[in-house]
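Dear support,

I submitted the protein below through the web form. The confirmation email said the job was done, but the results page showed an empty box. After a refresh the structure appeared. I'm attaching both so you can tell me whether what I see now is the final result or a partial one.
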Amino acid sequence: MLSNSPVVNAYRERTPGSAAASTRARAVFPSGLTHDSRRLEPYPPYVTHARGARKWDVDGNEYVDYYGGHGALLLGHCHPAMTEAVQAQVARGTHFGACHELEVRWGELVQQLVPSAERVRFHSSGTEANLMALRLARAFTGRSKIVRFRGHFHGWQDHAAFGVDNHLDGSASPGVLAGIAENVLLAPADDIEAACDLIRSRDDIAAVMLEPTGGYFGQVPMPRAFVHRLREVTSETGALLVFDEVVTGFRVAPGGVEELYGIRPDLSSWAKILAGGLPGGCITGRADVLDLLDFEQSKAQGREKVSHYGTFNANPLSAVAGISILELIAAGGVCEKASANGERLRALCNAVLSEEGVPWAAYGEHSGIYFHLNPEGHDIDPLDFDPLALPDYVDRLTAPSPLAHRLRLGLLANGVDMTGKPGGTLSAVHEEEDLQATAEALRRAVRLIRQEGLV
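What the results page shows now:
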């Protein structure tokens, strides 16, 4: 029960202002929320401001932040270069309803960093970019089916609104037409032979879409060899390979997973870091595919153009924010620092878990961290944990656990904000002091949870 929980009580004592804000929000928004992942019982924290790797709530509590703008803030909150650029642009105009040189520079930077970016088209979000990728793939190939992987997240659009953490049988979730779901084939994320057999067995597959490091930025890892095999089989069958780099783009390497793995997908979607933490997304890839958006090329080829509008596509504010951040990434060292921070924090957290005698483990790759809370009670050594060695690892790593809720609250009560998975993303501006504080917050959270008799 929440009322008898030492963890919940510790959180409540620190956050009466957030409780009051949540009560107001419930009279305005469904469940009081504007984003599903922010759901937290008894209520989520309400933040007033942030800087660098820290943020502060309405009660004045300070947190080391691993929500990171849902992964968008590789250089932390309010980076000086981005803040200055955006403030200057506000005075010049926020929406011209016209072409502008900023969008050209932004697109040029994307082409500079992304090996496969023969052409670029901007959107307002990763969800929109993924939807455009699927539309282009169908128009280009003349085929109808899309292959996705169970547990891989591609936004809230209809083609991806099932088969992630529910409707794993591929059936339509509420509000999605059955006809759309019937044209999406869900492949296993842990069986490359079965996935390749599925792709080879049909001649109507337009695209194979995946998160190339695995579902939810590697919460369920996908081995690199799996991705290379997908490149091979899609090349054989004529299906387009689509990388969803909304999270991984400009994070695991300046050119994303495709640079890191040496694989050139046919299309890729990008968002989050692309716009420096402001709304923005884009699709990149082969010129002959993106030529379906080109008026002159479509006419010359005798093909109907794929239409694309969007009031906020490449708006000046997102463009200057994206330019400022991508220029810093292009200069070098940013991705490497964030990834080193991730490795360091995972090691610190696993040392705490080992010292506390808790059979959980922190894991992840690059600048990501996740906690496996071991709901089935396997014999786990935090200092020697391989998530891919778990039996039925996809199910094990995504199995819901009430401990995830307690761990998040326990971390919040001790000055750390992570997502409810539980886990988060690190930035290049987290410092050793932040990482050490996080490890100690984990220790205190574990001890609170132990008081409740849950470990």
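Response: this is the final, complete result; the empty box was a page-load delay. The mean pLDDT is 96.
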